[in-house]
Amino acid sequence: MGSRLQRRMALRRKLHILRTLTKSKSVKKRWIIRDAFVYMYKLKLQVEAMKREYECLQVNEIEEVKVEEVGNDMDGKRGLLMVRVGWKGKGEEVLVSMLEAFERMNVNVVEARVTSNHFFGMEAIVQPPPAATAPILNQAILNLLQTQNQNY
């Protein structure tokens, strides 16, 4: 007898906790459990929405510039540089500005890949003039992105 009473009291305690957590107005056991499932489903949807928003924020905060030496050109004379740029703004304006900056600095673009679906991304292998080094090129690209950022 004691164990049946204890089980019933434990069940009532758990149902009461479920009722208070889910803010359910139901009295019957089956409706309290149904309300709890609905509440958990809504929480799951909220978590998924927060994850999507967080991922969008991460994509929007991408702003990186990496310039590193990758090797020599075909003749073995000069070192080639790999330029990687990720930026949160519109790709068309940045690409045009980037190519104009390369032209002003007399940098030859050997190979380039560009994406601008959700953000601007560029990978380019360039051959800089003798006066330009990786840090100088890096700083020039950062300055370009900062001016683009101020325009938005």
From TrEMBL:
Subcellular location: Nucleus
InterPro entries: bHLH-TF_ACT-like_plant, TF_AMS/ICE1/BHLH6-like
UniProt-listed Pfam families: bHLH-TF_ACT-like_plant (PF22754)
GO molecular function, one term: sequence-specific DNA binding
Keywords: Nucleus
Domain annotation Plant bHLH transcription factor ACT-like: ranges: 80-142
Superkingdom, natural source: Eukaryota
Primary localization class, coarse: nucleus
A GO cellular component annotation in the UniProt record: nucleus
Listed PANTHER family: TRANSCRIPTION FACTOR BHLH35-LIKE PROTEIN, TRANSCRIPTION FACTOR SCREAM2-RELATED
Protein's UniProt name: Uncharacterized protein LOC105167348
Lineage, top ranks: Eukaryota, Viridiplantae, Streptophyta, Embryophyta, Tracheophyta
